[in-house]
Amino acid sequence: SDGLTLATGSQDDTVRLWSINTHKEIKRWDKLRSPSVALSPNGRLLAATDFGGIHIWDLKTCRESFLSLSNHEFNSVKISPDGSHLLATVSSYGALLWDLNTGHLAARFAAGHPIWPVGDGTKDPRDDNLPPQSWAADFSPDGTMIVLSAQDGARVFQIGTGECIYYLNPDVLPKYEFGSGVGVCDSHFSHNGRYLAMVGGG
């Protein structure tokens, strides 16, 4: 974000904006079950996950829009460094990339497979061969790549081509077992884009 504002999603079904300088609440939205929220780097856009879609507010114009994916629950949401795209994860779908200028779904990236065809979000094109569970995704600092954290490890994709250029196998990571294995829960690029920090869970 812009470093002046903090966004939170809470178990009391609220999304709130806070001033970091004054520690006071700036704005509040009720009746939103949002496990993940994100602010754009310039602080203008706020995104919050909800069951069945993602709410997006333009904090300058107070305009709200909604990206719909019926009957699905999102694990995480991120806004690209330039504010033009939104990235969100659904456990069995992978990472979904929306163009915020058009509101259209632009691409889907999945664990266990290269990029999958973009559909209408109602039926997985590979329902008979579901991928490993996906937990979170993030943009690289220059906005050209994403990292997808999943049950079977972490993958780095080129956004422009959909190519998976790096795969970090959980076999080389510390072991964390829980049921079928949680794998890599979250991953983030360093500020220069050269390193990845990863969290495993179980």
Can you characterise this structure?
With 202 residues, the protein is mainly β. It has strands spanning 5-9, 14-19, 25-30, 37-39, 45-50, 53-58, 63-68, 74-79, 85-90, 94-99, 104-109, 134-139, 145-150, 153-158, 164-168, 184-189, 196-200. The strands form 5 sheets. Strands 4-5-6-7 form a 4-stranded antiparallel beta sheet, with no helix packed on it. It has a 4-stranded antiparallel beta sheet with strand order 8-9-10-11, with no helix packed on it. It has a 4-stranded antiparallel beta sheet with strand order 12-13-14-15, with no helix packed on it. The protein is globular. 33% of the residues are buried.
User: Strand fraction band?
Assistant: over 45%
Secondary-structure element series: EEEEEEEEEEEEEEEEE
Kindly report how far apart the N and C termini lie: 30 Å
Roughly what percent helix? under 10%
The main sheet comes to:
4 strands, antiparallel
Strand order, sheet with most strands: 4-5-6-7
The whole-number mean of residue pLDDT values reads: 82
SS element count, helices: 0
Class of secondary structure makeup: mainly beta
Question: What would you call the shape?
Answer: globular
Question: What gyration radius follows from the Cα positions, in whole Å?
Answer: 17 Å
Low-confidence stretches: 114-128, 176-180
Work out the number of β strands.
Answer: 17
